[in-house]
């Protein structure tokens, strides 16, 4: 874990530090839980199907995306939101599959 300053934009459009020394998890190659660089499709499937000690990884992803939207509505994390979209797509596909099986 590392610390960093979180920046935001004030009402006049100026950059300012809004949180000092925030904790940040950084995935490193020497961490056994770090899967490394993967294509988005593969990574999203891994997230969708994986469960850790704190629960489903997809729930962590959804909460992270929601938090980014809430805490910094003017920012856009294309990687995070693309992962969220794909994982939600898998949820919907599973839901449709279960619905058609029960019919």
In short:
The chain is an alpha+beta fold and 103 residues long. The longest helix is centred in the last third of the chain and has 24 residues, at 78-101.
What do you see in this structure?
By secondary structure, the protein is an alpha+beta fold. It is 48% helix and 21% strand. The chain has three helices and four strands; from the N terminus they run ββαββαα. It has a two-stranded antiparallel ribbon. A two-stranded antiparallel sheet has the order 3-4. The mean pLDDT is 90.
Largest sheet: 2 strands, antiparallel
Secondary-structure element order, N to C: EEHEEHH
How many β-strand runs?
4
Distance between the termini: 49 Å
Class per helix and strand makeup: alpha+beta
* Low-pLDDT sequence parts: none
Helix content: 40-55%
Strand order of the largest sheet: 1-2
Residues in β-strands, percent: 15-25%
Radius of gyration: 17 Å
Count of DSSP-assigned helices: 3
Enzyme class: lyase
GO molecular function, one term: glutathione specific gamma-glutamylcyclotransferase activity
GO biological process, one term: glutathione catabolic process
Pfam family, one: ChaC
């Amino acid at each position: 874990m590392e610390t960093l300053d979180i920046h935001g934009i004030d009402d006049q459009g100026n950059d300012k530090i809004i949180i000092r020394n925030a904790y940040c998890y950084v995935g490193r190659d020497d961490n056994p839980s770090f899967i490394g660089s993967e294509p988005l499709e593969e990574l999203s499937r891994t997230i969708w199907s994986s469960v850790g000690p704190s629960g489903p990884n997809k729930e962590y992803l959804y909460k992270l995306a929601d938090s980014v939207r809430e805490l910094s509505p003017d920012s856009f994390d294309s990687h995070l939101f693309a992962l969220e979209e794909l994982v939600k797509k898998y949820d919907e596909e599973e839901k449709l599959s279960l619905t058609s099986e029960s019919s």
